[in-house]
Amino acid sequence: MARVVKTIKVKIKNPNKGKEEALENTVEILNSLLATYIDFTLENRSLLTKTKEVVSKKTGEVRIRKLNNLEILTEIEKLSLKTKAHIKTEIDIKTMYPNLPTLFRRSIINTSTGMCKSYLTNLENWKNLSKKNKSKNSPSPPAPRNLPTFYCSVIMR
Questions:
Q1: Which residue, of 6, 13, 57, 156, is most buried by count of CB atoms within 10 Å of its CB?
Q2: Domain span at residue 40?
């Protein structure tokens, strides 16, 4: 027997003001961090096109490929996160955001990498257009608008 199900979304007015403020605070921190990493990635845009040699296990053939997203994440962390192995960094995220969970940092790095790749590709395509087809406005740099999904346990208080 078929049933009809109706979903209604209703905004709850101030169910728990402390949690709402903590959520807004977390989003503000993450947007600030995203802006930092967008600026950092655009300053170091060569990381997005960096290549490495790969040797095939089957054929022994050597080929060159671009870094994948995980390798780009690692390179950006080397340049922005002070550790015993990497004492000299361009920025020190641990000092700027001392209680930031690793999960958030890596998520933000991946988000900024994707945004910057998209922006640089759109900019290159725009530059290659003929004057007849080119609009007056070039693509704008990415803006830090993070819409994170949270579970109660990960909100920064």
A1: 156
A2: 18-124+143-154
Q: What is Dmax (Cα atoms) for the chain?
A: 67
Structural domain includes residue 29: yes
CB 157: neighbour CB atoms within 10 A? 10
102 sits in the region (left: phi over 0; alpha: psi -120 to 50; else beta) called: alpha
pLDDT for residue 35 is more than 80: yes
Per-residue DSSP letters for the chain?
------------SSS-HHHHHHHHHHHHHHHHHHHHHHHHHHHTTHHHH-EEEEE-TTT--EEEEE--HHHHHHHHHHHHS--SS----SS-HHHHSTT--HHHHHHHHHHHHHHHHHHHHHHHHHHHS-TTT--SSPPPPP---------GGG---
* pTM: predicted TM-score of the whole model, two decimal places: 0.77
Higher-scoring residue by pLDDT: 152, 15: 15
The structural domain count of the chain equals 1
* Confidence at residue 147, expressed as pLDDT on a 0 to 100 scale: 65
